[in-house]
Amino acid sequence: MKINLIGVPIHYGCDLKGADLAPDIIRNKMAQNHYEHEFYDFGNLYIPKIETETKYYAHPKIKFFDSIVDVNKNLAHAVYCSLHANSFPLVIGGDHSIAVGSISGASKYCKNLAVIWVDAHSDIHTDLTTSSGNLHGMSLAAVIGEGPKELTNLYFKGKKVRAENVFIIGARSIDEGEALLIKKKNISVFSTDYIKKYGTSNIINEINLHLKKNNIDYVHFSFDIDCLDPSIVNGTGTPEPNGLSVEDAKSIIKKIFGTKLVKSMDLVEYNPLLDKNKQTLNIVLQIIQFALTQLH
Fold first, then answer.
1. Of the residues 224, 240, 248, 266, which is catalytic?
2. pLDDT tens-digit profile of 165-190?
3. Catalytically annotated residue among 11, 15, 20, 96
4. Among 115, 196, 241, 257, which residue's beta carbon has the most beta carbons within 10 A?
């Protein structure tokens, strides 16, 4: 299989320096490993330099709004073109705001998209509910059609994925505004407590039933490293206790990729400046390598 590596060195969505350094560090380490697939490194997307004092210039409630929108438009097209070339887009962030672009590109390409969102957070705020102004907490809302039109209509007009085809795994920090939208849209959420109670196999079997019932032909897999427990990943900006283990993550990946529907992937929110002894980097590389071994 052909893998297109696309770096998006952006931290504007989390407003914390460090996540922008991740793509180069990850790709340099990946270059030292052997993969069975054919790799094409597309380098990094261009990220404009914005002064901190102007971060609310384009939107009164969302930081760095216009710059994030522009970057995501470019990413959407990169993903779309990659898929048209019969390649697998592996998008390395950066913060989770990049999922708006990667999912938009995937959605334009496929007929019936589902999104598996593995994250400690649901990221389903809008400009009406956010308290932080950080767009990485609004990216999932945008692709289901909630939020500013510049996001919901990014790359093409209309929602990118139906809410019933969104599955959030590992969430354990959900704010009130997000919970209301999740309930309104009837989005499937599998918390870490739920996973520990029922096991990954039962959860993935439940998701697979939905995928078959809804005639899904494409899954975008979005993996935020903060889904893992902070005792094993310190190198991320928004750690939350009671997270997944590496074994949990690998089990989820194996079973979801086993459907042969996963055709694009994000890996986001690694922050090298917070990473002690490169512990988190080593786990990031494990996750990427394991995911790629599941592709056929």
1. 224
2. 999 999 999 999 999 999 999 999 99
3. 96
4. 115
